[in-house]
Amino acid sequence: MGTFSARTHPGREVFGRRPLVARLGHQQTIGAIGHRLCRLIWKILHQRLSYEERGPAVTKHRAQRRAAKMIRELRSLGYRVELLRSPSGGENSNPCYLSDPPMMAST
Question: Model's pTM, two decimal places?
């Protein structure tokens, strides 16, 4: 289970199987996270590394993967899904068109 857990939950291999709060309690967990952040900041400043914010890009990528998965599932259920792109390409545009699945012939 340890290998599977480490593979599916990045970062767990560092702390073990149980979450940090369960092992240390709330106050020590806050201190451990603060210590980790201090070490990270020191490394960035000491080695003159550039910091890259990964939050929004990861979220956008996950949204694209989730949309692709949902479209795949709808198609496997018999729905016809057509991707439509708006001329403006805005965030609030409807990215796909969904039609009802074909009706089964009754016998």
Answer: 0.38
